[in-house]
Design a protein that fits this description.
alpha/beta; Rossmann fold; seven-stranded parallel β-sheet; 8 helices; SDR family NAD(P)-dependent oxidoreductase; oxidoreductase; SDR_fam
């Protein structure tokens, strides 16, 4: 069967804008792409962290800004265009997470998390889509999570934000694929980062950011729409999502109690 997206067969010269490149999966994916020969614009708030990722890679462009500043998106995008000429792939990897049960949710913190995880993606899309649509090419990669597959305890705001990203990626594909654009949905399981370090429970099939970056690159190389990993965990989550609610809730309650 033909892949749903354009395959990235050769990363040499690919122009990538990676949002959330200062740590975790974003930093590891930036290093993976740079090592493969891509030109990567690295964006996040922490300039010194971005400089560390760029170190030793002359084709890296450090482009720090606050993703919640709407005007800063356009300023930084124009700076990147001045250096790269265009963007072949934008990767939305910035995220925030607070483990909390539903009765522990703070409205202000919830609004901040939703602005980072979801609202910033809409601002970024409004920034890059006009040029991509005008030339009829380009790729959009959205890092969601298997936490968006179903309602999980401790992910009271994070999970819904990732579910929204899954929905967004699906509708973007339907809208944009006929116009020549690729849309990649990335759903990692547990990855060892500063965010998952906040969890106080056992995380099955925990992967390193480097392992996650390699899995993402394989998915992009293959042109897959959904890139989910590690499959021994994500497939179990998919099966759980397909179960009738009565059985799903029963199993989830037992897992929570455990």
């Amino acid at each position: 069967m033909r892949p749903l997206n354009h395959r990235i067969r050769d990363w040499t010269g690919q122009r990538v804008w990676l949002i959330g490149a200062s740590s975790g999966i974003g930093a590891a994916l930036a290093t993976e792409a740079l090592s493969a020969g891509a030109r990567v614009a690295l964006s996040a708030r922490r300039t010194e962290r971005l400089q560390a990722v760029a170190d030793g890679h002359p084709q890296a462009l450090v482009a720090p800004f606050d993703i919640l500043d709407r005007e800063a998106w356009h300023t930084r995008y124009n700076d990147i265009l001045a250096s790269f000429g265009s963007i072949d792939l934008i990767v939305f990897c910035a995220a925030d997470y607070h483990p909390e049960r539903s009765w522990e949710v703070d409205p202000e913190r919830a609004a901040q998390l939703l602005a980072v995880n979801l609202g910033s993606v809409y601002t970024g899309l409004a920034t890059v889509l006009p040029d991509m649509l005008a030339r009829g090419s380009g790729g959009i990669a959205i890092v969601a999570s298997v936490a968006g597959y179903l309602g999980l305890p401790n992910a009271s705001v994070y999970g819904p934000s990732k579910a929204a990203l899954i929905n967004l990626a699906e509708l973007l594909y339907v809208d944009l694929h006929p116009r020549g654009l690729s849309v990649y949905l990335i759903n990692p399981g547990f990855v060892q980062t500063a965010l998952t370090a906040r969890n106080d429970f056992s995380m099955p099939a925990l992967q390193t950011p480097q392992e996650a970056a390699r899995a993402i690159r394989r998915g992009l190389d293959s042109g897959r729409f959904e890139i989910h990993f590690p499959r021994r965990f994500t497939m179990a989550m998919k099966v759980l999502r397909w179960l009738p609610y009565r059985l799903r809730f029963h199993l989830m309650s037992r897992l929570v109690n455990t």
